[in-house]
Amino acid sequence: MSLVELIARADERGLTVSGLACLDRCVALLDGDDEILRPLWAALAEGSDAEEWATRLEQVRVKLGTDAAVTASPASAEGEAELLARRMLAAAPAIRSAASVREWADACSVAALRIHRLLDASPAGPSSLDAHREGRTEGMSPLVAAELRRQTRVLEMLAEHGLGGLRQALAVSTEGRRVLRAVVSRRARGRA
User: Fold this and answer.
1) Is 27 in contact with 85 (CB distance < 8 Å)?
2) What is the pLDDT of residues 49-106, one digit of tens each?
3) In degrees to the nearest 10, what's the CA dihedral of 43, 49, 52, 57?
4) Vertex 158, ends 134 and 133: CA angle to 5°?
5) Cα separation of 135 and 133, whole Å?
6) Integer distance in angstroms from the first to the last C-alpha of the chain?
7) Which of 14, 57, 77, 93 could form a disulfide with 100 if both were Cys (CB 3.0 to 4.6 A apart)?
8) Where residue 187 falls among pLDDT bands split at 50, 70, 90?
9) Cβ contact 2:8 at 8 Å
10) This prediction's pTM
11) How far is Cα 52 from Cα 116, in angstroms, rounded to an integer?
12) Three-class SS string for the chain?
């Protein structure tokens, strides 16, 4: 099943986890540590009410400074990637309705794939992210392919295991965060 189909079939919690996982994998661009989004993951695991989610989301936004200026040159790949990550966090719905989290999860999916494409040093040329999300993978770079697999796996785990898949989704997200953090670090060393 394609990523687009998985998003279309996911329930509110699955969509929220999907969006949060995309953001979590890109948090290195916001100078966030590995634990910065942990309160949001915990809110989902605990089945917290809407008010608790909104409170924790606002705390994360304050810590990461969603309205902070982009630190890299906006004209650079790093600057555009950081801006996309900031937009993901800014767009996270404080009130989780099925419609709002579906829109957010879809936007986060596209943004995360764009971020990975921007930061990928492989020679693969521009390709259609929409086509990749629909299951067509020709011309996809390794970094983008890995991100697409992670997004798909998170939604599959949640569809198969419900709330029980949350821990596995977090593990997939953690692996992706480490990969992107290494890419960001390698690119920074290359510029130095």
Assistant:
1) yes
2) 888 999 999 999 999 987 665 555 667 888 899 999 999 999 999 999 999 999 999 9
3) 60
4) 10
5) 5
6) 42
7) 93
8) confident
9) no
10) 0.89
11) 31
12) CCHHHHHHHCCHHHHHHHHHHHHHHCHHHHCCCCCCCHHHHHHHHHCCCHHHHHHHHHHHHHHHCCCCCCCCCCCCHHHHHHHHHHHHHHHCCCCCCHHHHHHHHHHHHHHHHHHHHHHCCCCCCCCCHHHHHCCCCCCCCHHHHHHHHHHHHHHHHHHHHHHHHHHHHHHHHHHHHHHHHHHHHHHHHHHC
CB 173 within 8 A of CB 21: yes
Q: What does the pLDDT look like over 117-163, one tens digit per residue?
A: 999 876 555 555 665 556 666 678 889 999 999 999 999 999 999 88
- Mean pLDDT, the chain, rounded, equals 88
Read off the tokens for 89: 């966090």
What gap in Å lies between CA 112 and CA 24, rounded to an integer?
A: 10
